[in-house]
Specification:
Helices cover 40% and strands 11% of the residues. The chain has ten helices and eight strands. The longest helix has 24 residues. 49% of the residues are buried. Bound molecules: zinc ion. Zinc ion binds next to loops. Belongs to the histone deacetylase family.
């Protein structure tokens, strides 16, 4: 096998969260995606362990009053319902570690062209409130942390999760250093949308062809008008037709083509990219992980000489499970 060098950022903490039985959040998918990569030849030297951020770092992005409430578990019940997780120390540790992971991915990508974070995409967290399984916005936090080190960078957040990146949009509403682009289901959560720098709302039932065309148009626009120094890519797989929350009809091959389109664009334009795996909601975890694995496959196709994963069955939509 050709030597591979794509950095993978992962912590076992990502799947360590006690949730009520039948909770819809697929907490095991992080570990399973890690295991999937290991079983297909990911090398020990690729794995980078994130460090949990401090609350002081988080305060660059979220308000001090919100952070105090998070730490002390002093929300109203309705606020926790909006977030969708029960409070626990585990949850706080996991959120800080995941934000550390996206931050690390963005920092590593600046030097190594690509990095993939096996978590992240908590884009519904706003400055003062959380929602939709998102306590703190790792995407926004990572951008702020990178900008502390490199204040002149122009960052583009390309969010292709089926849900709009509303928290990220509002956090960077008045910040010209970060361009926010969200391609999402117009009828999917959040039902009250925020204003990104570029929003591409798509209708229920969107299929591969029209989706990939919309993505290509957005990338062309970003290349022309934004000229980012680095891209933070949310590769949520809840656009997949089998997703239990998403409204699109994107095939497994469509997921792969989306990731190929984004990563090829970044490589051709010499724009470093840090990808996070984002959302994806299926009770069938094997199928869910196979969806997320398309990002890893695409990364190998674009960034190495290796075809890497020799599982050719994955290339064919007929073999969807
Ligand atoms: Zn989502």
């Amino acid at each position: 096998m050709t030597k591979v060098n794509i950095p993978f950022i992962y912590s076992p903490i990502y799947s360590q969260l006690s949730l009520p039985e039948r909770h819809r959040y697929p907490i095991e998918k992080y570990r399973l995606l890690h295991d999937w990569a290991v079983s297909r030849g990911a090398h020990a030297s690729q794995w980078k362990a994130p460090v949990a951020l401090t609350w002081e770092q988080v305060e660059q992005t979220h308000s001090a009053s919100y952070i105090e409430k998070l730490k002390a578990n002093s929300f109203e019940k309705a606020e926790w319902r909006r977030i969708g997780f029960p409070w626990s120390e585990q949850l706080l540790t996991r959120s800080l570690t995941s934000a550390g992971g996206t931050t690390l991915a963005l920092q590593i990508a600046l030097d190594s062209s690509i990095a993939i974070h096996f978590s992240g995409g908590y884009h519904h967290a706003h400055q003062d409130w959380g929602s939709g399984f998102c306590l703190i916005n790792d995407l926004a936090i990572a951008c702020h942390q990178l900008l502390l080190q490199h204040p002149n960078l122009k960052i583009a957040v390309l969010d292709t999760d089926v849900h709009q990146g509303d928290g990220t949009a509002t956090i960077f509403k008045n910040d010209p250093r970060v361009f926010t682009c969200s391609i999402h289901g117009e009828k999917n959560f959040p039902f009250s949308k925020s204003l990104s720098d570029l929003d591409v709302p798509l209708p229920k039932g969107t299929t591969d062809k029209s989706y990939l065309q919309a993505l290509q148009n957005a990338l062309t626009s970003i290349a022309r008008s934004v000229k980012p120094d680095i891209i933070l890519y949310d590769a949520g797989v809840d656009i997949y037709t089998k997703d239990e929350l998403g409204h699109f009809h994107i095939s497994l091959n469509g997921l792969f083509q989306r990731d190929m389109t984004v990563l090829s664009f970044c490589r051709q334009n010499s724009i470093p990219v840090a990808a996070v795996i984002g959302g994806g909601y299926q009770r069938n975890l094997e199928r869910l992980v196979r969806g997320h694995a398309q990002l890893l496959r695409a990364a190998y196709y674009v960034y190495t000489e290796s075809q890497y994963l020799p599982d050719t069955a994955l290339r064919s939509p007929e073999n969807e499970i």
